[in-house]
Amino acid sequence: MTMNLHGVAMVRNEADIVELFVRHNLTVLDRLTVVDHGSVDATSSILAALAREKLPLEVIREASLEFRQSEIVTREVRRILSTTEADFIFLLDADEFLKVGSRSRLETALASMPNEMYAVQSWRTYVPDFSGPLDPVQILRSARKVVPEGGGHKAVVARHSLKSSMYVAEGNHHLRKRLGNMGDFDVEPFRLRTEDSALAHVPVRSAAQFSAKVLVRWHARLIRPDRRELLGRQWLRAYDDLIADKVVTPEILAHATLPPEKLTELAMTYGLTKAERLAGPFSLVEDPFLADVRIAYRDLAKPDPFALVPQITRCVKNLATGAV
User: Fold this and answer.
1) What's the mean pLDDT when you consider all of the chain?
2) Predicted TM-score (pTM) of this structure
3) Cα separation of 207 and 192, whole Å?
4) Is the domain 5-321 a CATH 3.40.50 member?
């Protein structure tokens, strides 16, 4: 029996890549739900245009400013499992691209997963050639895989999770289970083999894109009253590189940027702990992942950090006043 494979992603201001994200991942998945988390660039327009093409794409608008990925993704996963025939839900971000040997091989691997578990697939970082043109397709086709590979992974939720108290932990990396007064506990995952399914992760595509993303994301995390000190360490590192010792103002934020060599460094060690970064040196190897897809909305696929200044300013103001 053929499985029904769904994907869920929460995105914000990903105009440079969101069309490729949708078209590529729908070559593997049967349906994709994208939560548009208050985008102010062309992300919303691109998603609307893709939906008008009658792709198996559902777009949901989320207006909250603060970053509550765990809560929002868990809500959508439970809604999809309770209202559709989805067997598995792949948890994705807009900069992640499924890399599978074949759909049948993927289904065989998922079918071998023991009951009451969830799956995780390897998360591999890719770094584009920043000296080339800022064409979305060329950026992804130029991207090479970082080696040695880190130990990161992303979760795949099985249908049986609907009957449990499991929820998606922050970052979509794993699931946790609520056990009443005993607290919350990590759930043991079933690891998919890299040759069956993995994620190609391209967090850095240009100076403008990454600077804007870091600035908005870090301030959106800071205004959360329940934030943890280690939450989003990659954003803190990049934010420090952007701002250094400058006084934070909207003007400084709007003009913050990173040189190509710093972009490459941040991309190659993205999401790694200090110990993992010290385990280098790292190198880049050819390992193509992008499906044979074309984009129709190239003119909209341009990162615009200046469009984000009002959003960043709101984050800074809320942080200063203690408002949420």
Assistant:
1) 83
2) 0.84
3) 33
4) no
